[in-house]
């Protein structure tokens, strides 16, 4: 076997190889130990780990039984696209990579359901659904390399949540493996279920701390039809953001409604090599509308244009062609990538939509007071604001001090406005201390008690969300 730098007993490694095959036990884990969490704030990963790639639920069950008996920490890894350190192995142990469990089992056209294994990527699922005329899977939380198990475990959101909701709204059933190795089937191809406590929705959003998701039953909906993408520049963030509630009150519920500072747009342009439709203004809205025909799209676009211009919009540009719309969306989607090297952290607070303007304006003033550069963008229609904190012009301990002050300010403000410190990125390891400051102690104690019931030996995704040691 050669030299080993991990502390798992040789007998355990041999047993893992027996369960999944020698080729599916990786002794050089470097490419598996980090996710997309910015390096400046992510926890240090333990390299004293072995990567195990199960190919079936039975193999996951056997691995978990072995780990539980030996009290070996297990860190479940999907596509590694997270931003909160949720899959980083912070202790010696096993990385359970779900990449081989990538089968789409069924597209059930009669019940409007898709059944797939946890390692299926979002792109795989979208391709499979799109091959069935008239069906769609609305959630689109960013990186299409993300795996379904991870999207469920983190209750992923994305730009389309304003109209179609988040991942939780599309999960009808799950197959999961408990830390002790037992297999549970929760929910299924049903719309209603009032049978006892709702364990299904407890697992959704649990960030890999309660069980291993191995299979998902996902709701599909009829294809929404054609789309237009509107780009609306404003001279001020206040005017842009205050347009949003009025559009929602008009009865037009967009497929997506995104807010972006001009600096964020420039970052997206740099990484894509593409040009945004309008170069003026300090703040922009990108609004995607869908409809069954051209008349419906035109009617919705005219309503939005009328409202936007009453709030000082400089222009209203409408993207109709598929390529044009795709280019606009790509610039928005890759803002983070455009400034990845300068980024300290991307916050993603969730506030009531009507409070977005107050939140952004107040945070901008605080950033200026601290002398720190913060780009604002995100899902204006559902109140999920992204704040990309940059290290630009700061060195030594200065960046850390200012970053921590700004983060505490932003989280405190979000809480006072009736919001929460994360809308879709999750707690992981990087927001644990912040969660303790903003949630009632009783809530934290209940979370710890739930964790202990599911995971009595505390082996699953240690160091994430809550500590029970």
What's the helix and strand layout?
Blueprint: H1 10-20, E1 25-26, E2 49-52, H2 57-70, E3 74-77, E4 93-97, E5 104-108, E6 113-117, H3 122-130, E7 135-136, H4 148-153, H5 161-164, E8 171-177, E9 183-187, H6 199-203, E10 212-219, E11 221-222, E12 226-234, H7 237-249, E13 256-261, H8 262-272, E14 283-291, H9 294-310, E15 317-319, H10 322-333, H11 335-338, E16 343-350, H12 356-370, E17 373-379, E18 384-390, H13 398-416, H14 432-438, H15 441-454
Parallel strand pairs: 2-4, 3-4
Antiparallel strand pairs: 1-2, 5-6, 6-10, 7-11, 8-9, 8-10, 12-14, 12-15, 13-14, 13-17, 16-18, 17-18
Keywords: FAD, Flavoprotein, Oxidoreductase
Organism: Geoglobus acetivorans
InterPro entries: FAD-bd_oxidored_4_C, FAD-bd_PCMH, FAD-bd_PCMH-like_sf, FAD-bd_PCMH_sub2, FAD-linked_Oxase-like_C, FAD-linked_OxidoTrans_Type4, Oxid_FAD_bind_N, Vanillyl_alc_oxidase_C-sub2
Radius of gyration: 23 Å
Can you name the CATH architecture of the largest domain? 2-Layer Sandwich
Q: Into which percentage range does the β-strand content fall?
A: 15-25%
For the record, the count of structural domains works out to 4
Q: What's the N-to-C terminus distance? A: 34 Å
Strand order of the largest sheet: 15-12-14-13-17-18-16
Shape: globular
């Amino acid at each position: 076997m050669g030299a080993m730098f991990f502390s798992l007993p040789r007998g355990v490694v041999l047993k893992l190889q027996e369960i999944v095959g020698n080729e599916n036990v990786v002794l050089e884990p470097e490419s598996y130990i980090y996710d997309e969490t910015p390096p400046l704030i992510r926890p240090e990963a333990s390299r004293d780990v072995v990567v195990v790639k199960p190919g079936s639920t039975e193999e996951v069950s056997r691995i978990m039984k072995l780990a539980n008996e030996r009290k070996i920490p297990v860190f479940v890894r999907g596509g590694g696209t997270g931003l909160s350190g949720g899959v980083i192995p912070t202790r010696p142990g096993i990385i359970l990579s779900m990449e081989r469990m990538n089968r789409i089992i069924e597209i059930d056209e009669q019940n409007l359901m898709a059944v797939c294994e946890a390692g299926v990527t979002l792109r795989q699922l979208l391709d499979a659904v799109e091959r069935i005329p008239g069906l769609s899977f609305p959630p689109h939380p960013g990186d299409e390399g993300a795996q379904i198990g991870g999207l469920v475990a983190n209750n992923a959101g994305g730009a389309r949540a304003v109209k179609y909701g988040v991942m939780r709204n599309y999960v009808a059933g799950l197959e999961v493996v408990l830390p002790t190795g037992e297999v549970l089937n929760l929910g299924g191809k049903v719309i209603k279920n009032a049978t006892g406590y709702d364990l299904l929705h407890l697992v959704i959003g649990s960030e890999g701390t309660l069980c291993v998701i191995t299979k998902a039953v996902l709701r599909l909906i009829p294809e929404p039809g054609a789309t237009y993408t509107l780009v609306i520049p404003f001279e001020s963030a206040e005017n842009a953001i205050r347009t949003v509630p009025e559009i929602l009150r008009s009865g037009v519920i967009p497929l997506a409604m995104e807010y972006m500072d001009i600096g964020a747009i420039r970052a997206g342009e740099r990484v894509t090599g593409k040009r945004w439709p309008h170069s003026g203004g300090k703040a922009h809205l990108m609004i995607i509308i869908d409809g069954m025909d051209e008349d419906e799209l035109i009617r919705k676009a005219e309503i939005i244009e009328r409202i936007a211009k009453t709030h000082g919009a400089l222009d209203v540009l409408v993207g109709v062609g598929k390529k044009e719309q795709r280019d606009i969306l790509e610039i928005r989607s890759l803002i983070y990538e455009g400034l990845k090297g300068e980024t300290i952290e991307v916050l993603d607070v969730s506030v009531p939509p009507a409070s977005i303007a107050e939140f952004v304006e107040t945070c901008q003033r605080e950033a200026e007071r601290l002398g720190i550069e913060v780009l604002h963008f995100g899902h204006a229609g559902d109140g999920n604001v992204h704040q990309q904190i940059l290290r630009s012009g700061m060195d030594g301990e200065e960046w850390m001090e200012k970053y921590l002050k700004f983060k505490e300010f932003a989280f405190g403000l979000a809480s006072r406005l009736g919001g929460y410190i994360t809308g879709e990125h999750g707690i992981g390891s990087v927001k644990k201390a912040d969660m303790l400051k903003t949630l009632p102690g009783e809530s934290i104690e209940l979370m710890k008690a739930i964790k202990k019931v599911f995971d009595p030996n505390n082996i699953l995704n240690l160091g994430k969300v809550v500590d029970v040691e």
